[in-house]
Amino acid sequence: MELMDRPCPVCGEGAPFEVLAQSNFDPEKMTAFSFASRKLPELMHHRLLRCKTCDVLYASPAPRPGEVAKAYEQAGFDSGEEAGLAADTYLGELLAKPLASREGALDIGTGEGAFLKRLLAAGFSGLRGVEPSRAPIAAADPAVRKLIRRGMFRASDFKKRSLGLVTCFQTMEHLEDPLGVAKAALQILRPGGAFFTVAHNQRSLSATLMGRLSPIYDIEHFQIFTQASLRALLHNAGYVNISVWPISNRYPLRYWVRVCPFPGPLKSLFLALFRGPLGSIRVPLRAGNLAAIGYRP
Questions:
Q1: How far does CA 249 lie from the centroid of its chain?
Q2: Considering the entire predicted model, what is its pTM?
């Protein structure tokens, strides 16, 4: 991939930064799952800079946008169970917040549409999803596959002020311009409509303990947020009544083992050990994710 320098994705040009880590990217280690969700961590990343104004960590230089879109189009998919469990968590967090309407909702980066299914069951109507990768759409339940448009999110595909809710889970890290996407989502929300997102927390306890071995440091993550920078992103995009809070996720033991940075032979042993019924036990952990919601004035 051709790389290009980029400014802070929250503050823009001119924001002061410090270099946190140099690139350890190795193209020879790329696979069909390098741009897939909940993959086996490759522990590679581009050069990482920290913005001294908003506290976001971001990759620069990073791949050009067109090349990123192509990578996601061809990415594999193998996270159906975890996606469903995550969708259950996100719906619970969303419904605990005030919503002006359950009419008109868009899920950006919807994958196989697990969250769309939860919204349908919760009484939301006028649902749409956008997803750049072919594989998860092919794996989608027929009940929601027809609601998913393949491609990158573009506000021009939707009528302005037409939606009551826009969601975007574990996707803001993957975007070349997350501020631009948050602003675009604002334009298609009705007054009082909500933008709800979940993202990794670079200052979480788990990320601090694992250091650069944390799976959040990845070639597909072009920025990694903190509570301060995620709040700044929504504020700079024009949202009001912003809330940002840590959440827990409930996944099978085999998933937690897969993302933990055990040494190679030990990891293979644990993966084999938890392949059976023991690995299916679902364990809730606060593993470093942040939820945030903001409303259109």
A1: 14
A2: 0.88
Who contacts 210 (Cβ-Cβ below 8 Å, separation ≥6)?
260, 261
Q: Where are the beta strands (DSSP E) in the chain?
A: 3-4, 17-21, 48-51, 57-59, 62-63, 103-108, 125-131, 148-150, 163-169, 189-200, 223-224, 240-252, 282-295
What's the mean per-residue pLDDT of the chain? 88
Structural domain boundaries in the chain? 3-295
The fold of the 3-295 domain, in CATH, is Rossmann fold (3.40.50)
Q: What is the pLDDT of residues 69-106, one digit of tens each?
A: 666 656 656 556 788 899 999 999 999 999 999 999 99
Show Cβ contacts of residue 92 under 8 Å, excluding neighbours closer than 6 positions.
none
- Report the C-alpha gap between 235 and 294 in whole angstroms: 8
- pLDDT reported for residue 218: 87
* Band of pLDDT at residue 120, cut at 50, 70 and 90: very high
